[in-house]
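Minutes, project check-in

Agenda point 3 was the complex the collaborators sent over. CS summarized: two entities, 852 residues total, and the question is how they sit relative to each other. Sequences were read into the notes so everyone works from the same version.
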Amino acid sequence: MGTGQLQKAVRWYPPSYDIRVEDVPVPLIQDPDDAIVKVKLAALCGADLHIYRGHGGVEKIHTCGHEFIGEVVALGSAYGTHAKDRPLLYSTLKVGDKVVSPFTINCGECQACRFGFTARCAHSTLFGSPALEGGQAQYIRVPKAGATLFNLSDPKTWPNGTPTSLADSSLLMLADILPTGVFAALQCLSHPKVQPVLTGKPWPLSLHPNSATTDSAPLTQEDVRLTVAIIGLGPVGICTAVSLLDMLAARRHPHRIVGVDLLESRREKMRAVYAAIDQEGRGLGEFIACSPEEAKTTLGKWTQGVGCDAVIEVVGHNSALTLAYELVKAFGVITSVGVHGEPQLPFTGRQMYNKNVSFDFGRCPARAMFPMAFEILGKFKRQDVFGQVGERASLVDRITDFGQASESYRAFDKGEVGKIIFDPWK
Amino acid sequence: MGTGQLQKAVRWYPPSYDIRVEDVPVPLIQDPDDAIVKVKLAALCGADLHIYRGHGGVEKIHTCGHEFIGEVVALGSAYGTHAKDRPLLYSTLKVGDKVVSPFTINCGECQACRFGFTARCAHSTLFGSPALEGGQAQYIRVPKAGATLFNLSDPKTWPNGTPTSLADSSLLMLADILPTGVFAALQCLSHPKVQPVLTGKPWPLSLHPNSATTDSAPLTQEDVRLTVAIIGLGPVGICTAVSLLDMLAARRHPHRIVGVDLLESRREKMRAVYAAIDQEGRGLGEFIACSPEEAKTTLGKWTQGVGCDAVIEVVGHNSALTLAYELVKAFGVITSVGVHGEPQLPFTGRQMYNKNVSFDFGRCPARAMFPMAFEILGKFKRQDVFGQVGERASLVDRITDFGQASESYRAFDKGEVGKIIFDPWK
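CS then shared the predicted structure for the full assembly.
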């Protein structure tokens, strides 16, 4: 791989809807912390559509994609036994190792990284953006790779109980959509305002042991049945549902969940996934996949007009935030992992005050969520959701070649297909 | 107290800035759940200023005030031993009992009340609003009093260790400002995104025991020093600071706090309060009261430009929310207890996403916070903050008569005085 070698890459052209496959130079090490990865598989993600549609204000032609899995083919001078004081992979990563990357880079050394908030690393950059070439190519340069990458060739770093035989198409889900789903579900369930439902103890006793008040009526069984709406049933929405259901099954906590999407094809996929994974949950929970209007009616009935305990928004559009506000109860929680753009938030301060709304916004710290995501990936291996490509309940609809790139973007944008993976060597 | 008896009351007249003291009928029992309370003391609160200034879109002449303490003089037919299945006070409250009320009523029986979210009770109504006559009067009608009121004549219901000899002017702080401060501080410290700072464990290990990741550098002592900004140093802001400092002293957690206000008189009061209460905290913390510009400079230095872990907003104005966003770090928390109005939130979705902001908005469930507020009230009794009226570090500047009502509203609105209490019988 010397200077001047060419590779195939999926490139975005301004202003919008223009995807071309081109020969571009193979990337080279630019910084001592860089690694060059030969891409085995790269996926198309809903977040890619923001730039595709021309919503991002982007003008620069660049290689697309932020989900990839591959093999290390070159490392910068920072790597080796002299790097013992740095994040693990600087001293252990080798050429030939199989790796998966989160969708943004992170240095592992700044304060945000030390806190585990890797998505907002001081060096955070999104792959497949004007600032950093993406993974829908045969080779990719990974800056800060010693903290960014996860070494799949080192099974002793895998969480206990994860089968080491996971398919590459399954492991690719670690790049973005599964950690983002885990992040959304974890944020929702760990919010203090949800604790009274989960613990059966009223606020603030749910948080502070010496704050008992005996002046209200006790909580009923119906009160502590958690009611959640998930808005958006694309691949991330489905991963959110899977993660949430897994966490609730682990707690054996009774629940009712509404998955909301405008497209029947996505609702149908969600139902198939639910049928595949709902084993422990039988009797503990209900799950409905429906349209926004049906969601309002169903939640109105279930909660007698009070609204649901939490809403998870996975769309990235003000209409989804407006629906979330409408569905949530007072003192409810809205967890938003959708990628939002320039429009002002569609809320007044009075609306926020009057409903005591809590919001958690933003990008998943995917690298920090890998252990939890791995655990789920292992658990559902035999259940086809993250497994066989093209099965009814599989998140991945097809693996295709770069020749299909432009058509794949078009069909994915229209909601005609679910998740698509590219094999750059096909 | 038969029909037609008159009493003195402080009344608001539209459109704005028009406060009159008038003779109005003494209220009567209207509903079986009502109590009539003879008011001993009633306070003027920052939230009263929204209507005072004509910001609330209010047109109805009404009696002002939502902070009062007094004595029960009449009870509806719901009270008595036949009410054993209802909230405690329906069966135990007696004529002659001394009571304090939170600033809104709550039934204690709806789902919101069972959860402890009493501020959003299905029957929630604010005293001193067009919907319910206020406490700046000689008598007040309290709907749902068996769940709303706290019985001060029943020391066995007081939290352990609270001295029963608290002055009425201290106990009056339970009506709104102290519970609101406790609520703000509790929301801030219990937010999941603050847990890495408090526990020293990175996200998501701070929440989920099996999610260890060893790929980032360990947290430093500097990282886990909690940095908080409190925007607004009126009485609620000061109560917030007192509550936060108390919780941090109990944890022996190192911290740096900036209190922000435009008015030097409020900053000066805050400094006096801090000097009075900072005993356990010496060496564990720093506290600065300053202007917004100084806050930006100080926090920039303290956090090397990263921003603070959490911001508590106690103003109720978009300028305060904008400042909060500017001061908070990525993955930081903004707790807003300010009363917000019609303007749209001054944020785009992109801003929220790009900084992974979490927001907690809304009204304090004061009745549910009473036990925690009581605990703090007892703790600081000898330290003048909630004690002697008019002392340098006292939250209460003066106790005056209704003759001073109009002038008191004017001076309070201008920030010329701190908290004012009315004695309706003076």
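Noted in discussion: Residues 249 and 281 of chain A are 6 Å apart (CA to CA).
Follow-up: revisit at the next meeting once the mutant set is ready.
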